[in-house]
Design brief:
By secondary structure, the chain is of the alpha/beta class. It is 40% helix and 20% strand. The chain has helices spanning 11-22, 34-43, 55-63, 80-96, 134-145, 168-179, 197-210, 228-239, 251-255, 259-262, 271-277, 286-291; strands spanning 2-6, 26-31, 46-49, 67-70, 105-110, 150-155, 158-160, 181-185, 191-196, 216-219, 223-227, 242-246. The strands form three sheets. The chain has a seven-stranded parallel sheet with strand order 3-2-1-4-5-6-10, sandwiched between helices. Strand 5, helix 5 (134-145) and strand 6 form a beta-alpha-beta unit. The chain is globular and about 55 Å long. 44% of the residues are buried.
Length: 298
């Protein structure tokens, strides 16, 4: 099928594009500038000009395709509520074009958005909350109620692998390099789920091909919960620095704006996703990628 992909030149999106092309699909990638357009052409994809603020370009991309994967997101935490509102409008714009069709529509969300006590499963749904990111999944449910064949693919806090330059692991590595210590909060017992970006790309492709039930959630998760302490230990070893335990009250001095994310405790299962899609993660785990050393190369 011909698939419209937003965020097609990003760390995850570029892997999804390759996965789709490798399995015989055509890709129409959203490009906001010439650099992105050239990357798409080099990858073997068609170019669709526009950006996430240009709802008319998003509508046109969805209309011109047999399926849509929405991976684009403006990663500007200084105006988080605003960019979440842009994401909601983008989902609504593309989704409204799909009412009355059988075209699959995949929307990217996060496991931490739906975090709960215990282990998060694909059955868990988000509720309205002060967190503006919940608007993404609420928009999915609204479209599903209108009959759109839409699903949310939840990604864990760490989507890792070669080429990861802006994800949560590089952020922690850079903070540890600057501070001279690899910090964790208290005993570092909070757990992060994780997935290699190549395994995540397979989930998007399989979900697109096999989606039947509107409103489904898929979990692109390999490690269901890596203790933060182990991540801090690997970073300390990679940079040859000490591990430092800080209290919750002291955490902001070391983690600054990242404190909220460093405190994530987000055990997540992907059992239902693996069963439904026939997906089995096969690429390096988070700790294996940290052992591979590329995160510590300047």
């Amino acid at each position: 099928m011909k698939v419209f992909v937003t965020g097609a030149t990003g760390f995850i999106g570029s892997a999804v594009v390759q996965e789709l092309l490798k399995h015989g699909h055509q890709v129409l990638g959203l490009a906001r500038n010439e650099e992105a357009a050239e990357k798409l052409k080099a990858a073997g994809a068609e170019v669709h000009r526009g950006d996430l603020n240009d709802t008319e370009s998003l509508k046109a991309g969805s209309n011109a395709s047999d399926g849509t994967i929405h991976l684009g997101f403006i990663h500007d935490f200084t105006r988080f509520a605003e960019v979440c509102a842009i994401d909601k409008a983008a989902i609504e714009s593309m989704g409204e074009q799909l009412i009355g069709t059988d075209k699959p529509f995949l929307v990217t969300s996060g496991t931490a958005v739906a975090s709960r006590d215990g282990i998060l499963t694909e059955k868990d749904r988000v509720q309205s909350s002060p967190n503006p990111r919940t608007a993404t999944e609420l928009a999915v449910d609204t479209l599903a109620s209108k009959g759109v064949k839409v699903a949310a693919v939840r990604l864990p806090p760490s989507v890792h692998g070669v080429g990861d330059a802006h994800g949560f692991i590089p952020i922690l590595v850079n903070m540890a390099r600057e501070k001279g210590v690899s910090a964790m909060i208290n005993e570092g017992l909070n757990k992060w789920p994780a997935v290699n970006r190549m395994d995540a790309a397979i989930v998007f492709r399989l979900a697109l091909e096999k989606l039947t039930e509107p409103g489904t959630r898929f979990h692109a998760v390999d490690d269901q919960g890596v203790p933060f302490r182990l991540i801090a230990d690997k970073i300390a070893k990679g940079l040859d620095v000490e591990v430092k335990s800080v209290t919750t009250e002291e955490a902001e001095a070391d983690f600054t704006w990242f404190t909220h994310f460093a405190m994530f405790n987000n055990l997540t299962s992907s059992e239902a996703t693996q069963k439904t899609l026939g997906w089995k993660p096969s690429h390096p785990s988070l700790l294996e990628d940290l052992d591979n050393g590329f995160y510590f190369q300047k």
